[in-house]
């Protein structure tokens, strides 16, 4: 009896130690922040990061094709043909970093000596300056934390660009989350995340309700933010795919979903568009010109030009030429069987930009369609695709997974752990670093906000993680003692009864059962993988749409194909080198010279 009780105590103690050593996923909001404290409405949307000592706050976005993280300092390097002055540049960058004010920054001669990645992807489609980014950037080591949380704080190599390498529309600081991401590596090596996995949902910026924060998760994904079956595919960064992020899919149909229930394809018959998923791009879709042309034929909308605002390259429609705007949705059907429906509130969006004084402004008499015409570059699905889709990238399995997104502020994180050890992989409920516990769609009544900063979503006080950990440990200890007492009582009583009924039975005939964790759960090998079940190509085909004849060719996706589909997109044109007069990334034309009002000064906040 004493022997068994000792074994039970040891098993419970071992389980407690293992649970304490097993990291959980980390979730942080993608939200809107004020950038310039002198300008109250200087808003930008992104992932908040603190950097340096003392801490400085900036906004970043996820870059799946970069291994290193690149942070702009006073040399902001905005494109003067798109960004009209330095205040606009400062706000659109999401603030800047002052390395000279940080006591934790250490300069190194190059990325190799700083411990950074020595290679970046430079295949066709990447930003034009990436080829020179490693050799031209100032390399160093600095303290960085996503969300300003101790749980995500690491000391890691960073690059400070000294070359205007990115397009003027991508703009925010670049958090490199590529296959050899220095940030994911640092988190994993510090045992702060269970795996080099990250997941991404942009959130909802517009609609009848309050905006809904997005989220980025490290080490797993958010089960509350997904709907239905998933599609999983291998990451492939090779030049032959034409996709520099490793995430290539094929758009097999684009379908307008009218308010009366009718559906209409705007894709030509027997056609398909290979696209590269690029979350940092500023639009929903960059595609061949027929997409915009057929959209306008079907909806009767009249374009008034292209945007030079925050959603650079979008199609602009003013209310003078368009007394009524298209009020339906758009479904993007992929050849793998997954269909993502973009609601109207995220399809025709307000025309927004940063004014010369740094203010975020909206032009009320026009709307924008975040779809641009291709030049010589590959087609892309950008950040607004992730208002309705959810992405998980698993660098340890070399795969990416897509789901239809559930726009909810509630969070339920699932651990992805390939170690096959004793770490628990049960779902854990979390506030996601900033989100409240209210669930709901931004487009539905209530329009739950993803931010709890104003206390509108949850009136309870936030729980300090350290206090929660201590309280959990105490509760676990009490529960363990109670369990030991109950088991001891049960075993003593059972043995007495057994001795009375069968006095000749030896205690040695008793066999020990399997040890269970304190919560009664016995974790089996492979249990984690069964929770999200990536399944290549097993989704059902899209529904059979009706195709009214409104200026486009009719196309039935279920009809027998008599010829091979025509694929749109040019993948192998070599981009121009980055010189004084670069080429536009999307249409190949020369950029105009800098405007006269571009100043030489740089905003500085202290």
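-> sequence recovered:
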């Amino acid at each position: 009896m004493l022997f068994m009780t000792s074994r039970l105590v040891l098993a419970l103690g071992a389980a407690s130690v293992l649970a304490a050593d097993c990291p959980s996923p980390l979730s942080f909001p993608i939200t809107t922040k004020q950038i310039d404290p002198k300008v109250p409405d200087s808003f930008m949307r992104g992932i908040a990061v603190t950097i340096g000592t003392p801490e400085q706050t900036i906004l970043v976005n996820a870059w799946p094709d970069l291994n290193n993280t690149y942070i702009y300092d006073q040399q902001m390097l905005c494109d003067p043909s798109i960004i009209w002055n330095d205040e606009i540049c400062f706000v659109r960058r999401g603030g800047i970093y002052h390395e000279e004010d940080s006591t934790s920054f250490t300069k190194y001669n190059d990325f190799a000596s700083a411990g950074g990645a020595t290679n970046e992807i430079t295949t066709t489609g990447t930003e034009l300056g990436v080829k020179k980014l490693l050799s031209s950037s100032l390399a160093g080591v600095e303290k960085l934390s996503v969300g300003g949380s101790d749980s995500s704080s690491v000391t890691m190599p960073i690059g400070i660009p000294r070359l205007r390498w990115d397009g003027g529309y991508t703009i925010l600081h670049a958090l490199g989350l590529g296959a050899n991401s220095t940030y994911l590596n640092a988190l994993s090596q510090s045992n702060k995340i269970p795996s080099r996995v990250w997941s991404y949902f942009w959130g909802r910026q517009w609609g009848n309700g309050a905006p809904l924060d997005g989220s980025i998760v490290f080490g797993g994904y958010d089960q509350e933010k997904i709907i239905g079956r998933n599609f999983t595919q291998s990451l492939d960064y090779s030049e032959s795919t034409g996709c520099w992020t490793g995430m290539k899919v094929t758009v097999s149909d684009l379908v307008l979903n009218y308010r009366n229930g009718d559906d209409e394809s705007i894709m030509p018959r027997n056609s398909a568009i290979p696209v590269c998923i690029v979350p940092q791009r500023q639009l929903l879709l960059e595609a061949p010109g027929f997409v915009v042309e057929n959209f306008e034929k079907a909806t009767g909308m009249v374009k008034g030009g292209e945007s030079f605002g925050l959603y650079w390259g979008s199609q602009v429609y003013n209310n003078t030429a368009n007394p009524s705007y298209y009020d339906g949705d758009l479904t993007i059907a992929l050849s793998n069987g997954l269909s993502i429906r973009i609601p109207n509130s995220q399809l025709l969006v307000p025309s927004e930009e940063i004014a010369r004084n740094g203010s975020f402004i909206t032009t009320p008499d026009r709307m924008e369609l975040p779809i641009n015409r291709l030049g010589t570059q590959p087609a892309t699905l950008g950040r607004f695709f992730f208002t309705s889709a959810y992405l998980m990238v698993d660098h340890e399995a070399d795969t990416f997974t897509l789901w239809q997104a559930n726009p909810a502020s509630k969070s339920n994180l699932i651990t992805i752990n390939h170690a096959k050890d004793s770490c628990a992989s049960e779902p854990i409920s979390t506030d996601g670093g900033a989100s409240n516990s209210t669930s709901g769609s931004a487009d539905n009544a209530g329009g739950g906000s993803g931010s709890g900063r104003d206390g509108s979503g949850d009136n309870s006080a936030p729980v300090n993680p350290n206090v929660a950990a201590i309280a959990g440990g105490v509760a676990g200890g009490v529960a363990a003692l109670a369990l030991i007492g109950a088991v001891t009582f049960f075993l003593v009583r059972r043995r007495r009864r057994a001795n009375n009924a069968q006095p000749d039975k030896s205690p040695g005939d008793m066999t020990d059962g399997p040890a269970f964790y304190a919560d009664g759960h016995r974790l089996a090998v492979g249990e984690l993988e069964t929770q999200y079940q990536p399944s290549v190509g097993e989704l059902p085909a899209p529904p059979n749409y009706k195709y009214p004849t409104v200026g486009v060719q009719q196309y039935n996706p279920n009809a027998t194909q008599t010829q091979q589909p025509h694929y749109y997109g040019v993948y192998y044109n070599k981009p121009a080198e980055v010189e004084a007069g670069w080429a536009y990334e999307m249409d190949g034309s020369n950029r105009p010279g800098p405007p006269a009002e571009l100043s030489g000064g740089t905003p500085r906040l202290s």
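Confidence is low (pLDDT under 50) at residues 1-18, 426-475, 494-606.
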